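Lab meeting, item 3. Inverse folding demo.
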């Protein structure tokens, strides 16, 4: 009988490996067999496809032996994305549509029992992978998925609402021409809006006082540094962290695509958040898998969903120790590799960490509001939940003291997010022009070449590092923070004043708290 090949794509992390849907119809005992390392939801496509074809008024070959192979056989396939190519393969093999006209198209979509197409997860990731691999093809996707895929520049994306809308485009030569259909349309590319950085962000002017904390946020945004906020309950740590994303420079097209592609994999992408830097705030009961990703198939975790955005961890010591320690490698490398027995996936994780914590279990150590009722041992155990290696990887440690009632009620609004963002963008652009990356990303010899440390500043740093017992990582991170401070001032070299301010942001946690 007939043999037909239909092209589709699977998902493996942010990659989209090609999958050829091979459909063979032959005489024999009627059956419908699906092979090719398919997960349960893919095997269930047999019932969805049969009902969709029948309810669409098309002929399902009941009296034939149907074999569907998803090649390559060693690549695991999941989700209902293969429903549409399987249905088209059966229709082409049975002669109802022209199999040759399917060449040059990639199909993905889940079928309802009525034949309507439903969105699939990861459409933007698939379109971005094809663009990155420079594969020229035409994507046919359901509504909701087609809009995502069309965000990729120069992507050829077609939106189909129903199985019949697709069938009408591939009728055999000699049949009547395909009638005009409102359910089939070529998607226009969506440009990056010029005002993308102005929407979706709360204004930092809402936070009254806290000049020191706002200065630390400005430095962190300008250089891409991580930040730890320490203070009593109600001092404004969460408000500051939730407004941090608005200080970051506007997203480039590549950054917006990468961030949206990961959100698409997690099923959380929304067009109204296009080109807006994400802020992920997992609860402190989140596990290590929830933070870094995992599962089978591997899914992105919170650190990947925060790619090119902000990961805000409130109540930092309350997170499980294993979850916090899992952050150490991504903070250094900017990506996470998830290895499982069946497969291995790598996700980007270039996020900015903003963490917040109380100084002690009761929260009032060093506060004028209430007397702390924690013993020294309780304070030590509480702060000891954070390991030295993790604290060493956080660039800035800043106190957020409680404001007196008079200051809170009568203080004028602070500086707006837009004004601070302009300074941060100018400082980051200086770093990009000088070294091609933000200061936080400097590694190895790049630090020596780009810091431009004055001799007096180097001597000051040597003395401070010796007295404070810093590690080599701590010294390098203080140097990068000092370079960012110099960029904010427009200085060509890193001076003593810049290093002195950077040193204040790397005090030991207990020392920082005790002086509150």
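The presenter then showed the designed sequence:
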């Amino acid at each position: 009988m007939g043999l037909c090949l239909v092209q589709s794509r699977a998902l493996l992390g942010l990659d989209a490996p090609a999958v050829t849907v091979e459909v063979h119809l032959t005489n024999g005992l009627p059956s419908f067999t699906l092979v090719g390392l398919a997960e349960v939801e893919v095997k269930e496509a047999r019932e969805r496809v049969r009902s969709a074809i029948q309810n669409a008024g098309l002929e399902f070959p009941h009296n034939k032996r149907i074999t569907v192979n998803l090649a390559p056989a060693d690549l695991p396939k999941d989700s209902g994305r293969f429903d549409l190519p399987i249905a088209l393969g059966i229709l082409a093999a049975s002669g109802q549509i022209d199999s040759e006209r399917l060449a040059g198209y990639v199909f993905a979509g889940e079928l309802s029992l009525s034949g309507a197409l439903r969105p699939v997860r990861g459409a933007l990731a698939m379109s971005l992978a094809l663009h990155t691999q420079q594969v020229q093809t035409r994507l046919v996707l359901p509504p909701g998925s087609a809009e995502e895929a069309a965000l990729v520049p120069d992507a050829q994306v077609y939106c189909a609402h129903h199985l019949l809308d697709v069938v009408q485009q591939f009728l055999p030569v000699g049949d009547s021409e395909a009638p005009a259909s409102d359910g089939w349309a070529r998607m226009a590319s969506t440009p990056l809006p010029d005002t993308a950085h102005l929407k979706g962000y709360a204004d930092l002017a809402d936070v009254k006082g806290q000049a020191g904390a706002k200065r630390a946020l400005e430095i962190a945004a300008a250089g891409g540094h991580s930040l730890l906020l320490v203070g009593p309950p109600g001092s404004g740590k969460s408000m500051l962290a939730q407004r941090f994303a608005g200080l970051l420079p506007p997203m480039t097209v590549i950054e917006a695509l990468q961030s949206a592609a990961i959100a698409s994999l997690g099923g959380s992408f929304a067009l109204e958040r296009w080109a807006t830097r994400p802020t992920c705030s997992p609860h402190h009961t989140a596990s290590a898998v929830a933070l870094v990703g995992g599962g089978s198939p591997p899914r992105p975790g919170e650190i990947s969903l925060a790619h090119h955005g902000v990961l805000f961890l409130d109540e930092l010591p309350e997170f499980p120790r294993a979850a916090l320690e899992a952050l150490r490698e991504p903070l250094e490398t900017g990506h996470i590799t998830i290895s499982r027995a069946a497969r291995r996936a790598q996700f980007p994780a270039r996020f900015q960490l903003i963490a917040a914590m109380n100084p002690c279990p009761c929260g009032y150590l060093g506060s004028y509001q209430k007397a702390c009722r924690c013993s020294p041992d309780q304070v030590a155990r509480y702060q000891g939940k954070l390991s030295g290696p993790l604290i060493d990887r956080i660039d800035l440690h800043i106190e957020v003291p409680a404001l007196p009632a008079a200051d809170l009620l009568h203080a004028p609004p602070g500086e707006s997010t837009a004004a601070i963002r302009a300074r941060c963008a100018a400082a980051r652009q200086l770093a990009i022009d000088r070294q091609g990356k933000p200061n936080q990303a400097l590694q190895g010899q790049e630090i020596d070449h780009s810091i431009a440390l004055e001799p007096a500043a180097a001597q000051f740093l040597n003395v401070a590092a010796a007295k404070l017992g810093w590690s080599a990582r701590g010294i390098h991170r203080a140097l990068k923070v000092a370079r960012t401070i110099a960029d904010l001032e427009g200085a060509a070299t890193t001076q003593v004043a810049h290093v002195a301010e950077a040193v204040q942001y790397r005090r030991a946690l207990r020392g920082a708290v005790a002086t509150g």
